[in-house]
Every structure is written in structure tokens, then in C-alpha cells.
Amino acid sequence: MPTRETPWPAGTPCWVDIAVPDVKAATEFYGPVIGWSFFDSGEDFGHFNIAQTDGKAAAGIGPIMQEGQPSAWTLYMASDDVDATAKLITDNGGTVLAGPMDIAGNGRMLVALDPTGAAFGVWQAMGQVGIEVYNEPGSLVWEDARLHDPAAAKRFYSAVFGYTYQPVEGAPEDYDTFCVNGEIAGGMGGMMGAAEGTPSHWAPYFGVADVDASVATAERGGGFVLMPATDTPFGRMAILTDPFGAVFSVHGQNSDQ
């Protein structure tokens, strides 16, 4: 099981979390769908729950901060200096929504919008590196940016995080992988068939042991299927929503493997 105990290189997707109106209901949904157990961080942290795989941090689920706040997964990029990254964000057409702020004993963070309106976070590790398990069932295994103006977003993320890009054979012309220090870290492209009116966003993919079983469990738990389990050149995947409307994908081996 690939694990991490030291801070992620700057620019690397290093954490993912969600704010929901009912944390208990969310843990009861995601636990069996992804295979997570949970650690409640306590009252001082608003009962933010750390989703764990084999005791390692994989994601977070916390309460919404204000009535009516929509639920959506937020992807965080690693930074060695959140305050310097905040300046790069605003200097290059992005908007800082919250922070930079300290999370006592854990790190320093902000939440921002890129110039196309996609929300993302930035995490500077101190006590908590972020994701401690990756590229395994029960962990974040991929992330896409779905963007109304991919070219503008790519210029922004290059300026802020130093990303370089590589085309993907067979993918839409505007879709590239993005690289951190030469290592592929995710994908970035157009809206890829999203419903009309969907804003630009980052989309997390969670690894699961059995995609079809996770889809069935999600439906029983009050989720919805946006794309049924499908074999692709990149593995078997499905796109789902949780009971609060947050979109996420599950990913595993193709059915013939």
C-alpha cells in the first residue's frame, strides 16, 4: 500500500475534503461506498472526520459553515508557503475565498477560485501531511479539472504551481495531463459532457475494490448514478453523487481483468 509520511511536493494534489449538512449521514454513506473508516477530530475542529484506509488519512468530511452552502469535494494542492501562493493566485487572475489561515497543529491553508471559477484549496503541511495513502482502493487515485476555458486555466496553474502539460492519445483535444516536477499528477480539460450550467470544477476519483459493488451501495445509500460503471482504456469507472448532491467518481480494474 503506497503511503506518505512527509509533505507532498509543492503543486501536488495532496488532500481532498467535503463539507456537508449532516456529517454522520455522510460517513454512513461514504464508509461502505469507498471502504473508509472514520476518526472524529473532536469538538475543537467542528467534529471534522478523517476518512481512513488501514488507519491512514485518505480524505476529510466536515460540516458546512453556513446555511445553504452547497456540498462539493474540494481538492487541495501542496505548497511550501501558502501566503506566497495566495499572492500568485491573485496576481494571475484567481480569487482567494478564505484564508490563508492556520489549522492548529496541522498546517496552513486557503481556498480559492481559478479564473474559470473552479474552486480548489492550498495546503501547507505542518503536523498533517495531507493524504497518507494513495493509488489504492480507499484512496484518491486521480483528479480532473473540468473547465469552461481550459487554455486560460492551464496558464493560471502553470503560473501558480509550475505545471507542465502532456497531451493524452485518444482524449479530447483540449485535455492534457498536468505534471509536477515531470511526474503526471492529474488531468485538465473541457467540461467533458457535463450538464449545461455546470460550473468549472475539480473532480476527484476514488479507488475501490469493486466498482459495480460501490455503485450499487451508493444507490442503496441515497446516491445517484450520473455515469454507470463503464470499462475504459484507463480502468473501470462510474460517476456518482452522494445524498447531498456532491459529485465524485469511483475507479477500479476493468471487468475483464
TrEMBL record:
Domain of life: Bacteria
Annotated ranges, domain VOC: 12-125, 139-253
Entry-linked InterPro entries: Anthracycline_SecMetBiosynth, Glyas_Bleomycin-R_OHBP_Dase, Glyas_Fos-R_dOase_dom, VOC_core
SUPFAM superfamilies according to UniProt: Glyoxalase/Bleomycin resistance protein/Dihydroxybiphenyl dioxygenase
PANTHER family (alphabetical): CONSERVED PROTEIN, GLYOXALASE-RELATED
The protein's name: VOC family protein
Species for this entry: Pseudonocardia bannensis
